[in-house]
Amino acid sequence: MEKPITVDEYQDNPEFWEQLALSVGGVEVKDESGKVLFDL
Question: Which of 17, 20, 21, 39 is the most exposed place for a label (fewest CB within 10 A)?
């Protein structure tokens, strides 16, 4: 189950999100328009 977050959330704490991605099965990073930029 991927968790969608914004670029700002990712940039505030990238290490946290990378660890979370490992534990939850992925994190989807989106821009303000909702376009997926990349997955962790």
Answer: 39
User: Which tokens hold the place of 6?
Assistant: 């914004």
Q: Answer whether 0.85 is exceeded by the pTM.
A: no
- CA–CA distance, 33 with 36 (Å, rounded to integer): 9
Domain borders along the chain are 3-39
Q: What's the rounded Cα separation, in Å, for the pair 31 and 2?
A: 16
Angstrom distance (rounded) from CA 33 to CA 25: 23
When pLDDT is cut at 50, 70 and 90, the band that residue 36 belongs to is very high
